[in-house]
Amino acid sequence: MPLLVVVVSSLFAYRIAELNVQTARQQQGEEFEIRRSDEARTKRAEVYERFLGAADRFAVAARAAIVECPSDCPSPPGDYQNARYEFQGAINQVYIYGSAEAVVRLRALAQTLPPALSGLSGGVTITPVEA
């Protein structure tokens, strides 16, 4: 009889320990998911803020380029090129870190942009966009 008590007690203790380990793993998994979600949300906010700043700078540079060169320009001004480059980088970051909805909206916006930097696709024609 004492051997049976020892075996049952050992099995019971083993099962309790196993349940404790499972609970701890589940809690760690939940904490990891919460931490990962918070990090993703923080990164996404940074990316969106950078995108909005780059979009603003690009809009100002494009407007200035249109005023400086109302017809076809063989090469847009350097400020325009730099702003376009920065804006393209911000767009790329939204594709990587943004939500699916942000990427869909970004594709619609990207179709209104002039071609990429001059020299890669020939001259760039900058014209106002009808919104």
Write up this protein.
The chain is mostly helical and 131 residues long. It has one domain. The protein contains three helices and no strands. The chain has helices at 2-68, 78-97, 100-110. Helix 1 runs antiparallel to helix 2. The longest helix is centred in the first third of the chain and has 67 residues, at 2-68. The chain is rod-shaped. It starts with a helix and ends in a 21-residue tail after the last helix.
Helix content: over 70%
Kindly give the count of domains.
Answer: 1
Query: With helices defined by DSSP (H or I, 4 residues minimum), what is the helix count?
Result: 3
- Poorly predicted regions are none
Q: How would you spell out the order of helices and strands?
A: HHH
Mean of pLDDT: 81
Q: State the secondary-structure class.
A: mainly alpha
The gross shape turns out to be rod-shaped
Major β-sheet annotation: none
Number of strands: 0
Radius of gyration of CA atoms, rounded to a whole number = 29 Å
Percentage beta strand: under 5%
The span between the termini is: 88 Å
Summarize the structure.
This protein is mostly helical and 131 residues long. It has helices at 2-68, 78-97, 100-110.
Which key terms come to mind for this protein?
131 residues, mainly alpha, 3 helices, 75% helix, rod-shaped
